[in-house]
Amino acid sequence: MYQILIVDDEKLILKSLRMLFEKDFIVHTAETGAVGIEIAERENIDLVLLDLRLPDSDGIAVLKKIKQVSSETIVIMMTAYGTISNAVLAMKEGAFDYINKPFKAKNIEIIVRLALESKNLHERVEGYRSELQRLRGGGRIIGASKAMHTLFEIIEKAATAGDAPVLIEGESGTGKELIAQAIHYGSRRSNGMFMEVNCAAMPLTLLESELFGYEKGAFTDAKRASKGLIEQARGGTLFLDEIGDMDLGIQAKILKVIEEKKYRRLGGDGVIDADIRVIAATNHTLQDDVDNKQFRKDLFYRLNVIHISVPPLRERIEDIKPLALHFVDAFNKSMRKEVAGIETEALNLMEQYEWPGNVRELRNIIERIMIMDAPKSIGPGHLPPEIGNRKGLKGVIKEPGREFIVNIPDGEIDIKHVVASMQRELVMYALKQSGGRRTDAAKLLSISRYSLRYLIKTLNIPESSIDDIAN
Q1: Which of 27, 157, 219, 410 has the least C-beta neighbours within 10 A?
Q2: Cα–Cα nearest to 174, from 218, 212, 143
Q3: CATH fold of 393-470, please?
Q4: Can you tell me whether residue 223 is helix, strand or coil?
Q5: Where do you find CATH 1.10.8.60 in the chain?
Q6: Distance (Å, rounded) from C-alpha 224 to C-alpha 391?
Q7: Cα distance between residue 108 and residue 114, in whole Å
Q8: Are 278 and 236 in contact (CB under 8 A)?
Q9: Digits of tens for pLDDT over the chain (471 positions)?
Q10: Which residues does residue 245 pair with via DSSP β-bridges, in sequence order?
Q11: Architecture of domain 314-388
Q12: What pTM, to 2 d.p., does this model score?
């Protein structure tokens, strides 16, 4: 419940205002400025109705003192000696409004309620902004390894580097988008929009119109003008995910946007200012793409002002435990479950796994366990076969130029399990080599696409793992 403080030396006004507001609010009263300030310092006051003339002090001086105690406290001035100069002075010192005596109860009640609604809206907006920064910024990047501490330092420097472009390289699932968001929300552009586009997920023509927008009649279905992501990101950050898959023609236009800070909509003649910072990410090695003439050299050098290389999860084993526990905690909250944690043996097995899908794969596995099993704590038996059967010998399948390691458990050998493990390794290898394209993977394995689909199903290979490879 909101708390209101009324400061006035007229007892009748104090009494009438108390009666007006005490049914909905906690009401405090004071007949002097000194008592009013004392109450403001002691209580969590949301709004003050303050008389301009008090027996012991000037109302403006009391206003200043209350604002020093709490800048968030709303102050509405009251006086029988209203002048424009007093109103201007009061507003300059932070008063929300100014009302002349005598006033109708209905009028002052409307002003008070509008003021409190304004305060509530402001608090909600600030709360949403803080939550957004927490969820989308650096607060979700978890890591205890030396590599991650180095990465945090680079993120901090990148965030404060003005509008310098940033290039983030790393395998799929390593958290490149989170790093981009952390840079944005730590920068001077944090109040602007963070606009993201996946360059690999859109056809050429659609990607161009999404980025630059278009004028009415620019193409057949352009029935009205539309803003592109560059325009929508004005004052903020444009994140170009998987830029290594961007068409060479659009690369030239992006280079011009970065260098000249100007562009045109499709079908338009007017020049638009591009007030954005560009952050790009890729799971390619762009230098190799440049060497192979698949990526523009000039754009690569322009993007590579600040370079961030994100290490894969297999190279930072120390981060597996804090990440896994973080996901357990997060899913406990979102699913309203009470999984106590992860048993030591399960953590040991997880730390021995290669994590080809990196952090995204770890997150998906924890989520799947908590949905399907909802255990009191996650043990070795809850882990999928590729992680849970790590003990025993390692069988090696050798082909010219390739080796596949297959886990063979201690004790009795279950040949079906070993064969399934081999099949799984081969299927995952073929999918990875083909970038998740099943037709190409089937050709690589010399089987039909139908047979590959059957293997994926019988070997319980999650669709999320295949999506991770494709991305």
Answers
A1: 410
A2: 143
A3: Arc Repressor Mutant, subunit A (1.10.10)
A4: coil
A5: 314-388
A6: 63
A7: 10
A8: no
A9: 789 999 999 999 999 999 999 988 999 999 999 999 999 998 889 999 999 889 998 889 999 999 998 888 999 988 877 666 777 788 888 889 888 888 888 899 999 999 988 888 877 666 555 555 554 444 468 888 999 999 999 999 999 999 999 999 999 999 999 999 999 988 999 888 999 999 988 888 789 889 998 888 878 777 777 888 999 999 999 999 999 999 999 999 999 999 999 999 988 888 888 999 999 999 988 999 999 999 999 999 999 999 999 999 999 999 999 999 999 998 998 888 899 999 998 998 999 888 989 999 999 999 999 988 878 999 988 898 888 755 444 444 545 555 555 555 555 555 666 677 778 878 888 888 888 888 888 888 888 887 788 788 777 777 766 776 666
A10: none
A11: Orthogonal Bundle (1.10)
A12: 0.58
User: What are the φ and ψ backbone dihedral angles of 410, each rounded to 5 degrees?
Assistant: -65, 165
3-129 CATH, one of 3.40.309.10, 3.65.10.20, 3.40.50.2300, 1.10.10.10 = 3.40.50.2300
Spatial neighbors of 157 by CB under 8 A, at least 6 apart, are 306
Determine phi and psi for 134, rounding to 5 degrees.
-65, -45
Residue type, 328: V
Residue 262: which region, alpha, beta or left (left: phi > 0; alpha: psi -120 to 50)? Answer: beta
DSSP, res 333: H
CA distance 74 to 47: 5
CATH of 138-310, one of 3.90.980.10, 2.40.110.10, 3.40.50.300, 3.40.50.1460: 3.40.50.300
- Total length of the chain: 471
Determine the Cα–Cα distance for residues 267 and 251; give it in Å rounded to an integer.
19
Torsions phi, psi for 51 (to 5 deg) = -75, 145
What region, left, alpha or beta, does residue 436 occupy, with left being phi > 0 and alpha being psi -120 to 50 degrees? left
Cα 198 to the center of its chain, rounded Å: 16
Q: Hey, what are 11's tokens?
A: 């007892």
What type of residue is 131? Answer: E
91's tokens: 């507003």
Q: Looking at the DSSP assignment, which residues form a beta bridge with residue 75? A: 48
Cα torsion at 246, 189, 213, 203 (round to 10°)?
Answer: 20
Distance between CA atoms of residues 155 and 166, nearest Å? 10
Reference 59, options 16, 18, 27, 30; nearest CA is 30
Q: Which residues pair with 99 in a beta bridge?
A: 78
Give the residue range(s) of CATH 3.40.50.2300 domains in the chain.
3-129
- Assigned token pair, 325: 């526990």
